[in-house]
Structure formats: C-alpha cells, structure tokens
Amino acid sequence: MSAEEQQQWFDFALDIAKRAGLVIKDGFEKTKTIEMKDNPRDLVTDTDKAVEALVIGEISKTFPDHNSLRFIGEESTAAGAKCELTDSPTWIIDPVDGTMNFVHSFPYTCISLAVWCEQQPCVAVVHNPILDLTYTARKDHGAFLNGKKLSVSLKDELWCRPDPAKMAVATANAMKVIKKCHGPRCMGSAALNMCHVAQGAAEVYYEIGIHAWDTAAASLIVREAGGVVMDMTGALTFFFASTILCYFGSKFIQVLRGPYDLMNRRVLCAANLKLAQQMVELLEVYDEDRD
C-alpha cells in the first residue's frame, strides 16, 4: 500500500466510522431487537447487521476497482461467510463491539474498523459515538484519541492484592456474580459505576475498599432514581441499627441486619430490592480499615 493509498483509506475509514456511529447512536436510544448466536452472552442486534451492511456497501461502492478487496466482518462471518486473512487488502469490521453493553444501554460500545495489507495492520479506527471517543492509527504514524497523540503507560510491574485472605474473598465473589449475570462491568470509578445503576445502564454494583467520598453523593443519586443502596451484608442506607422494618418507596420492607455505614468502605447498590437481596445472598464480605 502506498502512502497515498493509506491516507485515502484512512480518511474513508474515519468518515464511514463516523457515519456508522450515527446508526449506532440512533439504535442505542431505541428499543433493541436482539438475537442470540452461539450462547446467551453472544448477542446480535439489528444495529449490528445494519452497520456492517452499511460499511461493506460503502467500501465496495467507493473502491469498485479493487477486485482483490476482502472483508472480514463479525456478523457476515456469523452468517457463514469465510473468515480468511490473506496478503490481499482486507477490511476487518466489528460493527458494534460491546454488543452486550449496547443491549443494556451501557455507553462503552463502538465500531471497530481496520485495513490489513500483506497480513499487517495499516489503518485503524475505533469510534464510540455515545461518548464521542475516536481512537485512530495509521501504520508508522502513531495513535490518537480525538486527534491527541496517545502513549502507553510507563509502569512495568503488575500490582496484586497483598492479602491472600482478601484476594480469596474477592475472587469468590466475582465467580458467584459471573454465574448470575450477562457480564459484569467495572469501569474504574465507584461514583460513575453507581450512577450507571441510577441511569439504568447497569443493574447492580458492589465494591469493597472504596471510601466515603466515593459513595456519598452517588448513594443519593441512586436512591433518588429509585434504586437501593445498602451495605453488602444487607443493610439499607440511611436507616438506624435498631430498625426492623424500614419505609422504602411506597411500602415497608424488612432489613436483614444493621444500617448502611458510609465509613465502612463497602457498598452494594441495585436497581431494586429484589436484585439487591439476591446479591446479598451471593456475596462474601471482609472488613477494611474504616475511613
């Protein structure tokens, strides 16, 4: 591929990714039609199919003279198309990467579009239209996020939890939750994770090791949106230890144990009490040093 071709294909890839992003964004805000492929975690929507058809159609129309042009697309491959990477220029398309997120209206989803030549990547665009994040790269020209050059972390050591007992509990909890949900999500911000529950993008969030400032504001946001915030032992927020029945929404409910303690560095929030109580039954708890 010449430098001129690489630039031409990059410009086109960026343009079609942005156009496809409009389709993703439109579908994101609507009721989805969902099909299951090989298993309950492998989903496809009408938006996946529409985006892939749009991208392949526009590539074929824009480059009609490229007889050797090949495609590898997630949905066309799932439908039986041959998945083969050769030396010929190949467009590799994931129309909606993060379909599970897309289905649940969780905004970490994107179109992934690449051109490979001679079995090497030459052009890449990853576009999240929901958050307006566009990652791009051309071979030997660097990588960018919304036009700003990227650089990987300088850290070269992995960090591990030093307490084996705490690690055992954390691992046990993760395995229990994984068996009960489509797929757990944790994006690195306790406040935002809780706000995703408030907005309906996630149903449940829990964490041990956070601090009062992580949850103080978001706990109110979740509650004001109609959700539940409690200690992982099952205690609802803002109620007192002596309470046996607490008023929640339009009815009284039974509290399993004592009150939610903002300072004890753990939290469980959920879209509703039923989900929360299911999580309480699943999860193990350990104590961190208090705030």
From TrEMBL:
Pfam families noted in UniProt:
Inositol_P (PF00459)
* Keyword Cell membrane (UniProt): no
Cofactor(s) it depends on: Mg(2+)
Cite a single GO MF annotation.
metal ion binding
> What is the enzyme's main class?
hydrolase
Catalysed reaction(s) here are: a myo-inositol phosphate + H2O = myo-inositol + phosphate
Tell me which EC number(s) this protein carries. Answer: 3.1.3.25
Q: Is Repeat tagged as a keyword? A: no
Q: Which InterPro entries match?
A: IMPase (IPR033942), Inositol_monoP_metal-BS (IPR020583), Inositol_monoPase_Li-sen (IPR020552), Inositol_monophosphatase-like (IPR000760), Inositol_monophosphatase_CS (IPR020550)
Q: Which GO terms describe its biological process?
A: inositol biosynthetic process; phosphatidylinositol phosphate biosynthetic process; signal transduction
- The UniProt annotation places Mg(2+) binding at E74, D94, D97, D214
Which UniProt keywords are listed?
A: Hydrolase, Magnesium, Metal-binding
Give the superkingdom in one word.
Eukaryota
Per the record, the pathway is: Polyol metabolism; myo-inositol biosynthesis; myo-inositol from D-glucose 6-phosphate: step 2/2
Q: What Gene3D superfamilies does the annotation carry? A: 3.40.190.80, Fructose-1,6-Bisphosphatase, subunit A, domain 1 (3.30.540.10)
The Swiss-Prot or TrEMBL record describes its family as follows: Belongs to the inositol monophosphatase superfamily.
Q: What is this protein called?
A: Inositol-1-monophosphatase
Q: Which organism is it from?
A: Hyalella azteca
Q: What is the lineage of its organism?
A: Eukaryota, Metazoa, Ecdysozoa, Arthropoda, Crustacea
